[in-house]
């Protein structure tokens, strides 16, 4: 029963038999849920399948009643921001003059392998500026330990040239949210380059707070980083919804902290869509004014 309750709280539904063979929504997390679905479906064994945002909302509303979100938390890399060029291409292009001769496919494979391994020097990957961790990753990915090469890469990823917004309409959405009195924060596993990077991209003023793992000494999916973000914003966890692209770090981590969470690229594909889900998003001052819009299944926040 305890396991079932935890799975329900994480946003899952029970399926039995052939239904368990269905592929769940979302990115790389399905293997955790569906790895032995075929055999278990044949045996009629019940399984848990991830919920979408609207299904999860209906489930939450059935238990707790109407929900008002007064804050939106958003992941940085992969949700708010994306690299302008593939990582392996950048590592190889810059690395050619330093003797890097691995192909992009080889660099990507080695990067993934290095990144997946435990970081033995600290319980956190990103401590302060994250240089020791990233030196290890760059060296393991390319076979090149030249410090000048590393510094060139490191500095490149601090510039606006290296990043772009995932959603070209993000500016209008976050400005509308701020105007409406909704609190906003970035919650990210990142080093201390994140704040200057947001400034370089001219989007730092969209957010009331930034909870970056290197500063709060906790990395997603640890609930602490989400609780810190809520503390910075002055809201309760149940009053916040987090949007991120990683099922484990963003979806499960936020829900473990008591926040709602939507999976970017699965539940929602844009920030405008995120705030138009059948849920009331607004500041306390808007609660009464927005009740009619809420009853009609829309958000009181207008995006131009």
What does this structure look like?
This protein is an alpha/beta fold and about 300 residues long. It folds into 3 domains: about 1-50, no CATH class; about 70-80 and about 165-295, Rossmann fold (3-Layer(aba) Sandwich); about 85-160, DNA polymerase, domain 1 (Orthogonal Bundle). About 40% of the residues lie in helices and about 15% in strands. The chain is built from 15 helices and 11 strands. The chain has helices at about 1-10, 30-35, 35-40, 55-65, 85-95, 105-115, 130-140, 145-155, 170-180, 195-200, 215, 225-235, 245-255, 270-275, 290-295; strands spanning about 10-15, 45-50, 70, 70-75, 80-85, 165, 185-190, 210, 240-245, 260-265, 280. The strands form 4 sheets. The chain has a 5-stranded parallel β-sheet, with helices on both faces. The longest helix is centred in the middle third of the chain and has 13 residues, at about 105-115. The termini are far apart. This is N-acylneuraminate-9-phosphatase.
